Amino acid sequence: MKTIKLTILGILFPFISISQDTIRKMVAGRNLNVFDVNTHIVSSTDFYHENDYVDHKINIQKNEVLLLHLYDDCKYCDPTIFFRELVIQSKSIGLIKKKVHSESNEYYFNGKEYSHVIIKKPND
Q: How many CB atoms lie within 10 A of CB 68?
């Protein structure tokens, strides 16, 4: 009887446990790309050849983890950009400003700790 209860619990546990989804976004120059699990582009702002640089705000739900890839080393990017400023909304300590490398770097943000990230346009 104890084995049956443990078996039922083992079968149901994966369905009742809380999981986190990973959202994958990349800022490449002026462009914001959104990727699926297989790293295929799902949506893109497609600003490769036109427009000025803009700030990008990415909201993070508490059951999500943001994988942010900054890639200012693309062939359409300004070759003088090496850093970006991130404005991160922490749920515990408020706004955090960080200057980070943006040539080709990845950053992770857990939705339990952060509500959004703003990627500032260069030289802002």
A: 21
The C-alpha atoms of residue 78 and residue 89 are separated, in whole angstroms, by: 28
Residue 1 lies in a domain: no
Question: For 19, which DSSP code?
Answer: -
User: What's the domain count of the chain?
Assistant: 1
Residue with tokens 């942010």: 68
Say if 111 falls within a structural domain: yes
Strand partners, 70: 27, 105
Per-residue pLDDT of the chain (124 residues; tens, 9 = 90+): 655 545 554 555 554 445 668 889 999 888 888 888 888 888 877 666 666 888 999 999 999 999 999 998 888 788 888 999 999 999 999 999 999 998 888 999 999 999 999 999 887 5
Cβ count near 77 (within 10 Å): 19
